[in-house]
Design a protein that fits this description.
This protein has a domain at about 20-55. The protein contains three helices and three strands, in the order βαααββ. The chain has helices at about 25-30, 35, 45-50; strands at about 10-15, 55-65, 65-75. It has a three-stranded antiparallel β-sheet with strand order 1-3-2. The protein is elongated and about 45 Å long. It starts with 7 loop residues before the first strand and ends with a strand.
Amino acid sequence: MPRPSDGGALYLADFGGRVTASDGLTARLQRRSQRLRDNLGDGVPARLRAAGFGDVTELTHRASRVGRVTYYSGTAPARR
């Protein structure tokens, strides 16, 4: 069974990402929220890079009833 030290990939779905007012009411509420503000824009990719993930990429995003859903990927290098 692979362990985190063996490297690998992470796929993450996040409610938020690069939200704009045109994304609807939920997006506007997210932009106002102090708790969520740090996760909007480049917040999630920056945190993934700080945690040691490389090749952090926004794969795509989709609009949903609860706001924008953004999909990310990142890779973890194998430790020696």
